[in-house]
Design brief:
This protein is of the alpha+beta class. It has eight helices and six strands; from the N terminus they run E-H-H-E-E-H-H-H-E-E-H-H-E-H.
Length: about 325
């Protein structure tokens, strides 16, 4: 028996096999899955070298399978994402595609992107750049405050002139004086505003001189990240029960008309099914459970079972389950 396929440590002959495969999005765990999960949890309890990471919480999965020779059922185990910074560990099935395999394209390109991040961070931390941004920010705020005060003063002056006109009949000379006053005040406002805007333009030019190389590096980072993500998704060649194989991008294009989200294909359920199909083992039932502390932004309780996620796993599992008699 493969080291990936674990025999049950307890007798299971009395447990009836499921008639249909688990609906991964809505299920009660089959007794065989509960037993398999308990054995995985017992194994995890022995891994003191990973106690800190396991304590932070992670999703695990089990898949009960039967081999072609008709022997007793066994089970596969998987974890979501990485464990201790690695995707390959004894006892667990391998990833659909190993990002970290030696000689692969992912790590070298990831290092290039990390180097871009460091260069961007260094430029953003430059004291002269920060000082230029501060001067610009202060000048913009000073302009806004001056405009509020100046516009209020213009409105108050206009109100005084209007009150003079309404209080008594003005001579032509008095009316012309009020008009000249209005014209002068508006001209002074425009002159001052123009000067402040010119200073802002100079400050913005100074800031842009720092930001242009930063933005160029950001653009390169975006391009490299998008290309790497697309190339990576193309490496995920997923199987279904019919023996068909499709890339992650093709699957999401059909189901969502979008590229896959980050981390798609790295959850426990796709890993389990992929391993079973690769070895010709018949999937019987599946369950996923959370182990460790609850995450900050999700409802996940230690030891509880959960359905597969719709965002990342929905399209993948709908494809991978084709050919199985699923309890939908």
């Amino acid at each position: 028996m493969s080291t990936l396929l674990h025999p049950f440590q307890s007798p299971v002959e009395h447990i009836e096999l499921p008639g249909r495969f688990t609906n991964p999005f809505h299920y009660e765990p089959h007794p065989l899955c509960v037993l398999a999960a308990e054995e995985v949890q017992a194994y995890l309890a022995t891994r003191h070298d990973r106690a800190d990471e396991l304590g932070q919480g992670k999703m695990f999965g089990v898949l009960v399978v039967r081999t072609a020779d008709g022997g007793p059922p066994g089970y596969l185990a998987a974890f979501s994402g990485l464990l201790a910074g690695k995707s390959v560990h004894p006892f667990f099935v391998p990833p659909v595609y190993d990002l970290q395999r030696p000689g692969g394209f992912f790590k070298p390109e990831e290092e290039i992107i990390s180097a871009l991040n460091r260069r961007i961070g260094g430029l953003e931390a430059d004291e002269a750049y920060r000082a230029a941004r501060l001067r610009l920010s202060e000048a913009e705020e000073a302009l806004r405050q001056w405009q509020r005060i100046a516009r209020r003063q213009l409105a108050e002056a206009k109100a005084r002139r209007d009150a003079c006109r309404q209080a008594a009949a003005l001579t032509r000379a008095e009316e012309e004086a009020l008009t000249r006053e209005s014209q002068y005040e508006h001209a002074e406002y425009k002159r001052e505003e123009h000067g402040r805007m010119e200073r802002l333009a100079r400050l913005r030019t100074a800031v842009a001189a720092y930001e242009e190389p930063i933005e160029a590096l950001r653009a390169e980072r975006r391009q490299r990240s998008a290309a790497l993500q697309r190339r990576l998704f193309d490496q995920f060649r997923l199987l279904n029960a019919r023996g068909e194989e499709r890339s992650l991008c093709d699957i999401f294009e059909e189901y969502t008309h979008h590229l896959p989200p980050g981390g798609a294909g790295e959850c426990a359920a796709p890993k389990l099914l992929q391993c079973a199909y690769r070895h010709g083992w018949q999937p019987l039932a599946m369950a996923e459970f959370w182990w460790g502390a609850s995450p900050r932004h999700e409802v996940r309780l230690h030891g509880h079972y959960y359905p597969a996620c719709q965002n990342k796993c929905g399209p993948i599992l709908h494809y991978m389950l084709q050919g199985l008699n699923v309890a939908f």
